[in-house]
Amino acid sequence: MTTPLDLDLLESQVRAALAADDVDALRQLVAQIYPPDLADIIDRLDDEDQVRVFSLLETEQAADVLDETSIDATRELINQLPAEQAADILEELDSDDAAAILTEDVPERQQELLAAMAPQEAADVRELLRYPPQSAGRLLNDQFVALHESHTAAEAMERLRRIVHDSAIIVYLYVLDDADRLIGTVSLRRLLVEPPERRIADLMRPAPITVHPESDQEEVARVVARYDLAAVPVVTEEGRMLGVVTVDDVIDILVEEGTEDVLKFGAVAQGQADETYFTVPVTTSVQRRIVWLLFLFVAGSITANVLEVFEAELQQVVALAFFIPLLIGTGGNTGAQTVSTLIRAMALNEVRLRDVWRVLGRELLVGFILGLLLGVIAFGRAFLEVSLPNLALTVALSVLAICVWANVIGALVPIIARRLGVDPALVSAPLITTLVDASGLTIYLLIAKILLGL
Amino acid sequence: MTTPLDLDLLESQVRAALAADDVDALRQLVAQIYPPDLADIIDRLDDEDQVRVFSLLETEQAADVLDETSIDATRELINQLPAEQAADILEELDSDDAAAILTEDVPERQQELLAAMAPQEAADVRELLRYPPQSAGRLLNDQFVALHESHTAAEAMERLRRIVHDSAIIVYLYVLDDADRLIGTVSLRRLLVEPPERRIADLMRPAPITVHPESDQEEVARVVARYDLAAVPVVTEEGRMLGVVTVDDVIDILVEEGTEDVLKFGAVAQGQADETYFTVPVTTSVQRRIVWLLFLFVAGSITANVLEVFEAELQQVVALAFFIPLLIGTGGNTGAQTVSTLIRAMALNEVRLRDVWRVLGRELLVGFILGLLLGVIAFGRAFLEVSLPNLALTVALSVLAICVWANVIGALVPIIARRLGVDPALVSAPLITTLVDASGLTIYLLIAKILLGL
């Protein structure tokens, strides 16, 4: 196996072997590449070469690679294979990974491929598909070690040996009662050090942390991260154990959610898990962006009405217009800072709904201090440009007022979103900027009317 | 142990017991709360109550709680304890967690507390402190099972039993040569199913994926996430194995980096790992925000100069000013979308440096389509307001030009940042907005000059 460092080098070696049409060299080369690396390389080949490389893989490696390729490559590869062969590869995957491919990558061939799979594996996948997308149920792994209180440590070890999956991360074994309800866990470490004749009832730790199959995957990730678990058991409302969600799935969720949060904050509508930058068609990219842009454009166009209302004042003092972009820019920047701070604080549960007054007090104070500091600088800057002390004072006071106002908006909007049951991470920086723009302009021109006597 | 659901309820029970000064009830109550939950509750108590609750904990629970409390609470709790007692708690922690507390929470007492710790534990922590902050070396866990090729499976199991730490996630055992160089791994699963007399040499998988102690923690997280590892071995340049970084640390890194990325994107300077929203002093919060705000303010104030240059044109057609906020807002929004898409694509390695032309072509096209769609709407919107077809056309063409331009800026800046060795995630939405503002205005007023014959 190679080290993960030299992806560019590996890619050029694969391309060279493809160009030379040297099948043996290619087969040798790809057999040595780690599946995630090979998936990356395949993603970057054209369709025909993707299939040429993929067809050289053994079923097991093929499954591992297919699990990591982007949505387009996965579709292409599966659709180039006879259903029988595609089904063999899907059987090789964990049920949750097979279910993900059958729902996200080739949904239109779901029934056909399930029918071609071995009955037991197909039934396992169908079981997972009963749960909603992005739920714990979709990530279920049913390869866990189930024990009974009456077992001995030796019997438990015997059961552990019978679990097939080689790469499984086994830290806990699960103790079920006669109705398959989870009543406790035993750590593998404990089993290894205790005398073989000890009863599980004496070794187990009761009342483990669990999630339900309907729990959102973000919630699952939060629980695993918070309590440092290697796997979290999934139980029904009645406490019956269905399986575990393992830490490697949780890591994938965290990476995916990280992507989503940054995109949401940039006001780009959400995409799918397996896509990559270049595999998203331009039209899809436009669709995801235009909705927000249009909304913000329409909302932002109210600024034109605000300015029209003050047409006479602008006519009298054209220099008022010079500072419009600077003032609304500063308001937008301050608001974006506040909202990014709060979204994270709420995601990490540091700020809860009942903290609204504390948050507001804090952000008012921060906004006031920031506004004072920037206001002083704004006075100097404006006076240098226009040499009119009253106009410079107008700009300075507006900076102060807008900073306070933007901070309040940036704090309130995500909290209100949460109270309305909307994900606060949907509150994007551009949304706040747009909200602050029209109101900030009104503040500025009202102050101007008073101070300049217009 | 309680379930993690009812944090508010638990907090009010703790507060009630504190108010009633009922030490026994309080002791019973806190003993049942999971450490991360108790840490959250302690974070929200005032200083005196924090110490009252903490002093009721056994050393082991105290260590687990201290590992999870926010930076301010951790400082307060450690500083209220005699050095001997604080050292006892630090000894109970993994070396990497103790090192984190001694560098981030109470750096000024580092030497004093290390001197008070047991010599072996203090030496372990000092060892980690030799590595740079946020490196793999700082996360080193030296409790791994080291084997020799000549061992049998039975001997390996015997060594495994001697590892002390109860909650350790053990998936692999590590095979070292006579110079302590890592030459292979054996999975625990394999050990369990093979006959006890098999030689490790026959069971091991050679050339494992490794990281170096100087590797950045983000790089470590990427490797663990990419290859679905439960732990990654850390080796020196010469291949000598120092320890492992475990998946629970990687999850903490991913959560932390997620926070950093959103904050950077909102142009808030980076904070520390353990702080929470309310524990950061207002002055610190202002400091972290003012630097960026000032920079953006100064950069943004160039817009005032641009507008001054066009003072005569604005004087002639005041209605030109009406559309300034809308145009620069649209440019900023488009640019923010592009930059958020690219930052993630680069973080996930989907876009590399040599892809710059492909990226540029794609973003030009997307910008053009978005600009066309918004331009049509802008024409209608402007014509409705001012009834001047040439002005409406000016606004429409400017929207088109600014969308294309903002997309190019939003794509180029993160790529240039990467080429210059700057983290592309530092390219914030506000930075792009500010860059697009002045140039967008120039585009608008130049088009106006031509179309309106000014």
If you had to describe this structure to a student in words, what would you say it looks like?
The structure is a homodimer of 454-residue chains. The first copy, chain A, has 454 residues and is mostly helical. Chain A folds into three domains: 124 residues, MgtE N-terminal fold, CATH 1.25.60.10; 107 residues, Roll (CBS-domain), CATH 3.10.580; 171 residues, Tetracycline Repressor, domain 2. Chain A is built from 23 helices and six strands. Chain A has a four-stranded mixed beta sheet with strand order 1-2-3-4. The first copy, chain A, has a two-stranded antiparallel ribbon with strand order 5-6. In chain A, a hairpin with a 5-residue loop joins strand 5 and strand 6. The longest helix of chain A is centred in the C-terminal third of the chain and has 31 residues. At the A-B interface, helix 11, helix 12, helix 14, helix 15 and helix 16 of A face helix 11, helix 12, helix 14, helix 15 and helix 16 of B.
Give keywords:
homodimer, 454 residues, mainly alpha, MgtE N-terminal fold, CBS-domain, Tetracycline Repressor, domain 2, four-stranded mixed β-sheet, two-stranded antiparallel sheet, 23 helices, 6% strand
The shape of chain A is globular
CATH topology of the largest domain in chain A: Tetracycline Repressor, domain 2
Which architecture of the largest domain in chain A does the CATH hierarchy give at level 2?
Orthogonal Bundle
Query: How many separate domains of chain A?
Result: 3
List the total number of helices of chain A. 23
Give me the side-by-side strand order of the main sheet of chain A. Answer: 1-2-3-4
Unreliable stretches of chain A (pLDDT < 50, length at least 5) are none
Instruction: Identify the CATH class of the largest domain in chain A.
Output: Mainly Alpha
Name the average pLDDT of chain A.
86
The largest chain-to-chain contact, stated as pair and per-chain residue counts, equals: A-B, 128 and 128 residues
Radius of gyration of chain A, whole Å? 30 Å
Specify the helix fraction band of chain A. Answer: 55-70%
